[in-house]
């Protein structure tokens, strides 16, 4: 645990400079392996050789296992969280459809339909253009409000989590979803008392707590805190696998549950219970990933900066006039000591690529389903098979292929290095070559998938293109892990908050752009939205080509440790070990 007494700002430097006293140490990049439980902190294992060091969990060395943070604490509750989010999509849409359809026929001057409208039931009489248009407009308003408020809240949550911890804010992020589903439940149970337009208030509550975007970004911040750089991309990949599995099977399970119970209301009871379970688990059970000492240091640094800003008094009216709603994005363009133009280019390239990959998955998914049904005559069954196949392919890539790539590209080289008796000290030293190449391959796969979608003449070719697009899951996990390795640990939440803001903005802009484009071109050139999407992925691929490995935001402590400039040969062999064999490492700095 941390030292007793009030920590000072200098503790941040001391914390970063811990090292082993009995062996030569190197600053490891992504080729470093994860610490095993028996070898943490450079202790000897059964073979008598020291393992690679990572000081991220040094404050938790003396704590019991149930108070030690780990990504594995998150997997089950996060999967439940994504199941609840995915399970609510289709039932809520059908509920809104029946509400609006009933109101439409009640207000219409034409004869009422032969069959009455059942709230939440199968209503074929509602499949008319007038009702579909009203439903699309209403859901667009809901998504716009949620996305807009999330874009404001998520950066704030990210910054607060650096100072006060991740778990409590993760629990808070789900509270808005609970309120939104309770309003939906009440509107469905008492439709004559509570008008369906109250669902807009639920969207406001959801957006005020960051919605699904805040929950996802805070879980990634938690993972970055307790996972060494060598395994961070794979760990975030596990979270993405939970995400896509939950989004794929949530609607399926919800549909079967409604069929089994015979009531649409039953699924909303389960969804509310899932949200409450997630809040309870992350708020009271999961150990906090930031120690009290690290939180105190971050709070003191923030307080000092606040005092400096307060000394330069500016009237509040002038502050409001000069307020910039995009100010949280400034962290993606850092200036000052320890930064560089190459760092800024890397961060912007990664942020834009991530926004395109994640934004397209939210905005284009429904349009691709509409296009496939229009182009190939698919029904609900065929479209469901397509979504499930693509989601399962993405899950397999993240759970099996990605860990295998990490093992052969990072763990095995680290094992060979340890066989030479060299102990490495893991630090955030930017994306490594494997990160860069994975991102390039993933974005190239997305470009090829868009070409395949556009040229597909049958459903089988379309399905193959969708499986190729599943490679984008590799890119998203690698990008978000690489972003955290470009910045100091005390700015991870702030940076991921800015990324979350971009996700929220894409959630607002993307559906407007792609759904509007498809509606305007479906009669003349239905593939137009795929061409635009392919162009965006070309931008993401270009950004991946601009990435340079081993670029990071250097802190004061790291600058003091770098006492001499190494030649290219010394970077490989080591300044103090010129007689040793070459190490299979992209970048090594010997102390």
Walk me through what this model shows.
There is one protein chain. This protein has a 3-stranded parallel β-sheet, with no helix packed on it. The chain is built from 20 helices and 3 strands. Helix content is 66%, strand content 2%. The chain has 591 residues and is an all-alpha fold. It has 3 domains: 65-300, MFS general substrate transporter like domains (Growth Hormone, Chain: A), CATH 1.20.1250.20; 345-412 and 427-544, Growth Hormone, Chain: A, CATH 1.20.1250; 554-591, no CATH class. Helix 2 (72-107) crosses helix 7 (229-261) and helix 11 (341-363) packs across helix 17 (492-521). It has helices at residues 10-16, 72-107, 129-164, 167-189, 199-208, 211-226, 229-261, 265-285, 292-311, 316-321, 341-363, 365-376, 380-419, 433-455, 459-469, 472-484, 492-521, 528-546, 556-561, 568-573; strands at 25-28, 53-54, 423-426. Mean pLDDT is 76; it is low at 1-50 and 561-591. It starts with 9 loop residues before the first helix and ends in an 18-residue tail after the last helix.
Question: How would you concisely characterize the structure shown here?
Answer:
With 591 residues, the chain is mostly helical. The chain is 66% helix and 2% strand. The protein is built from 20 helices and 3 strands.
Give the tags.
three-stranded parallel β-sheet, 3 domains, Growth Hormone, Chain: A, mainly alpha, transmembrane transporter activity, disordered N terminus
Strand content: under 5%
Shape: globular
For the record, the count of structural domains works out to 3
Task: State mean pLDDT (0 to 100 scale).
Answer: 76
Give the name of the CATH architecture of the largest domain: Up-down Bundle
Number of helices: 20
Structural class: mainly alpha
- Helix coverage percent: 55-70%
Order of helices and strands: HEEHHHHHHHHHHHHEHHHHHHH
Spatial strand order of the main sheet = 1-3-2
CATH class of the largest domain: Mainly Alpha
Distance between the termini: 27 Å
Q: Would you identify the regions where 5 or more consecutive residues have pLDDT less than 50?
A: 1-50, 561-591
Looking at the structure, the CATH topology of the largest domain is: Growth Hormone, Chain: A
Radius of gyration: 26 Å
Keywords: Membrane, Transmembrane, Transmembrane helix
Organism: Clonostachys byssicola
Domain Major facilitator superfamily (MFS) profile: 80-552
Transmembrane segments: 71-90, 135-157, 169-190, 196-218, 238-258, 264-286, 347-371, 383-408, 462-483, 526-547
């Amino acid at each position: 645990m941390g030292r007793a007494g009030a920590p000072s700002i200098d503790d941040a430097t001391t914390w970063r400079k811990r090292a082993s006293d009995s062996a030569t140490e190197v600053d490891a990049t992504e080729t470093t392996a994860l610490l095993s439980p028996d070898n943490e902190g450079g202790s000897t294992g059964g073979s008598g050789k020291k393992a690679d060091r990572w000081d991220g969990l040094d404050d938790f060395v003396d704590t019991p296992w149930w108070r030690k943070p780990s990504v594995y604490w998150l997997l089950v509750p996060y999967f439940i969280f994504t199941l609840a989010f995915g399970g609510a999509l289709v039932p809520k849409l059908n509920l809104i459809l029946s509400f609006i359809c009933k109101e439409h026929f009640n207000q219409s001057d034409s004869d009422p339909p032969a069959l009455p409208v059942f709230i939440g039931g199968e209503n074929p009489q509602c499949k008319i253009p007038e009702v579909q248009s009203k439903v699309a407009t209403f859901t667009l308003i809901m998504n716009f409000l949620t996305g807009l408020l999330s874009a404001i809240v998520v950066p704030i949550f990210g910054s607060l989590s650096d100072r006060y911890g991740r778990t409590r804010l993760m629990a808070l992020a789900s509270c808005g979803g609970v309120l939104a589903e309770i309003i939906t439940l009440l509107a469905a149970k008492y439709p004559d008392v509570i008008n369906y337009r109250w669902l807009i208030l639920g969207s406001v509550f959801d957006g005020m707590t960051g919605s699904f975007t805040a929950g996802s970004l805070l879980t990634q911040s938690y993972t970055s805190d307790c996972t060494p750089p060598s395994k961070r991309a794979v760990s975030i990949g596990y979270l993405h696998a939970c995400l896509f599995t939950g989004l794929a099977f949530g609607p399926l399970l919800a549909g079967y549950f409604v069929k089994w119970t015979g009531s649409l209301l039953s699924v909303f009871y389960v969804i509310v219970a899932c949200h409450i379970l997630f809040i309870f688990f992350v708020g009271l059970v999961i150990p906090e990933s930031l120690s009290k000492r690290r939180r105190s240091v971050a709070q003191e640094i923030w307080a000092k900066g606040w005092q400096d800003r307060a000394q330069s008094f500016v009237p509040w009216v002038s502050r409001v006039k000069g307020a910039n709603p995009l100010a949280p994005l400034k962290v993606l363009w850092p200036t000052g000591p320890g930064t560089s133009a190459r760092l800024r280019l890397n961060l912007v390239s990664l942020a834009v690529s991530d926004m395109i990959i994640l934004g397209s998955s939210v905005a284009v998914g429904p349009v691709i389903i509409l296009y496939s049904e229009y182009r190939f005559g698919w029904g609900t069954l065929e479209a469901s098979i397509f979504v499930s196949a693509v989601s399962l392919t993405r899950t397999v890539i993240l759970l099996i292929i990605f860990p295998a790539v990490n093992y052969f590209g990072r763990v095995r080289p680290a094992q060979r290095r340890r066989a030479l008796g060299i102990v490495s000290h893991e630090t955030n030293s930017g994306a490594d070559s494997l990160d860069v190449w994975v991102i390039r391959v993933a974005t190239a796969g997305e470009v090829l998938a868009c070409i395949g979608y556009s040229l597909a003449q049958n459903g089988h070719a379309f399905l193959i293109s969708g499986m190729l697009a599943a490679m984008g899951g590799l890119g998203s996990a690698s990008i978000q892990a690489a972003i955290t390795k470009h910045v100091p640990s005390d700015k991870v939440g702030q940076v991921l908050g800015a990324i979350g803001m971009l996700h929220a903005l894409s959630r607002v802009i993307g559906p407007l752009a792609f759904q509007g484009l498809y509606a305007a071109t479906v009669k003349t050139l239905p593939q137009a939205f795929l061409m635009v999407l392919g162009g965006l992925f070309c931008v993401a691929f270009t950004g991946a080509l601009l990435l340079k490995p081993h670029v990071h935001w250097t802190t004061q402590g790291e600058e003091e440790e770098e006492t001499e400039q190494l030649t290219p040969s010394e970077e490989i062999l080591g300044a103090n070990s010129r007689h040793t064999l070459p190490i299979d490492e992209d970048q090594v700095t010997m102390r």
